[in-house]
Write a structure and sequence with these properties.
There is one protein chain. Helix 1 crosses helix 3. This protein has about 110 residues and is mostly helical. The chain contains five helices and no strands. The relative contact order is 0.09. The longest helix is centred in the C-terminal third of the chain and has 24 residues.
Length: about 110
């Protein structure tokens, strides 16, 4: 019989991930130390560090929430701007006039 017990999933905020990654990069904490502090598994800790280093180089990882608070805000504002632009595009589309609607309804009735 095998023991298939898994670690309970932990929830770590982007702010916490940023701080853990900063400790590894700037304060030379090891992955193992961060794993003990955070309770996260090795692959997660490695991802946080990789993402932190990418963000420090100015790169954004597609599909990931930025770890840095300022970058998160910029990301959210860009999303809101894209949604607003789409709303404007839809509102600028030509709408059928009343005459067109009435003509269409008359043709349907006959």
């Amino acid at each position: 019989m095998t023991d298939n017990s898994r670690k309970d999933r932990i929830n770590v905020t982007p702010k916490q991930k940023h701080e853990y990654a900063r400790l590894m990069v700037q304060d030379n904490y090891t992955n193992k130390q961060i794993m003990e502090i955070s309770g996260a598994a090795a692959p997660a800790v490695t991802r946080w560090k990789k993402q932190y280093l990418a963000e420090q180089r100015g790169e954004m990882i597609e599909g990931k929430i930025p770890l840095d608070a300022d970058k998160r805000l910029i990301h959210e504002l860009k999303q809101e701007l894209a949604e607003a632009r789409e709303d404007i595009r839809l509102l600028k589309r030509p709408q059928p006039g009343l005459a067109t609607i009435l003509r269409t309804q008359r043709h349907v009735k006959m």
